[in-house]
Amino acid sequence: MLEGLSENAQAALPYLFDLWGMPRHQLPPEGAWHTWLILVGRGAGKTRAGAEWIRSRVEGATPEAPGLCSRVALVGATLDEARDVMVHGESGIVACSPPDRRPVWHEGKRTLTWRNGAQATCFSAASPEKLRGPQFDCAWVDELGKWKNPERAWDMLQFALRLGRNPQQVVTTTPRANPVLERLLEDEGTVTVSAPTWENRANLADGFIDKVVKRYGGTSQGREELDGEMVLDRPGALWSRGLIEANRVSAAPELERVVVAVDPPASVGENADECGIIVAGKARGADVAYILADRSSHGETPQQWAARAIAAFEEFSADRMVFEINQGGAMVEGIVRTQSPHVSFQAVHARRGKALRAEPVSALYEQGRVRHVGLMRALEDQMRAFGATPRSPDRVDALVWAVWSLLIEERGQPRARRI
Length: 419
Description:
Layout: H1 7-12, H2 17-20, E1 35-40, H3 46-58, E2 71-76, H4 79-87, H5 93-96, E3 104-106, E4 111-113, E5 119-124, E6 138-142, H6 150-160, E7 168-173, H7 179-186, E8 190-195, H8 208-216, H9 220-225, H10 241-246, E9 248-249, E10 255-263, E11 276-283, E12 289-294, H11 302-315, E13 320-324, H12 330-339, E14 345-348, H13 354-366, E15 370-373, H14 377-385, H15 394-408
Parallel strand pairs: 1-7, 1-8, 2-5, 2-6, 6-7, 9-15, 10-13, 12-15, 13-14
Antiparallel strand pairs: 3-4, 4-5, 10-11, 11-12
Helix pairs in contact: 11-12, 13-15
């Protein structure tokens, strides 16, 4: 096939990104959209995707022919980053452009100019007022997740996207929660794509993936920087990502007591709540609890989630199974005993709301007295939302009962204290 191509065609091949781009996150989506949000891990190829999309918008059939767009905004966290990454970076616009279509950089004006007259101007998110006045028919926004004050710069850019019949923008960023990104994820005009770092392994240094996975795998930071996954903190929540991360360890010390806490669903079937099943232990000689595992389940019958709780009890050689008796909890003991009659139980009865029960446990996290052994993604997502949403968090409720049993009930108070 290559021998059948002309010398000029062979020289053009490296610049035909439709052939080389990864379809899942580097090639633009079909359909009507306003924002293409590329939310990926470090090194997954987001800069190349942004640069190639700008090329596809401004280049015509020949170097002098007009493209679909002619006025472009390039917005980075700072002017230096916009220039050094988006324009002159190894995957930036200049490096990606073939010699006969390569735009010229004008340092004083912070602009790129193509032979067909198209022009791209660099802006800093730290100076949003610079976006007041100019107007554009497309834009590339880079690393939105790390902008210090994203709302103002983002709003100014949206007002400036007013040229042409269908002004669009691409956002390339490693996930880091901020209000603008959270709104974008929910906007009906946004198409979001995601990919982990290792999808671009072929274009990364040897050993890089193994090194960073060993260092950051299993952490919330790794979920963002490697998995390309947004980890959200919500105003009013009792736990933040930083609080949980500060209390994460790779292994638990010797434990003097282990419990399995069960928060049963009030109903059964596909639409039923989850059955929260959390395993936790107390360190020997220390007033510190370790969350060992989250074995919660969804859509299972009582017999199935009871079997899951029993399996966790036996796997961790637990001393006691803790359950709330308020809403159907009394059936836990009966169901479990039909499968394993020798399990020891502790029944608790809640008289306060879930938030009031959880506040002392959140305080123990702040004191460094509750630690997570490894990453428990679904549980931690519920924790970061708890107190900020009306949703009933079954995993968190089971966690609260486990910590109460290990650290709060143990202080000379009755085991079945009404809380």
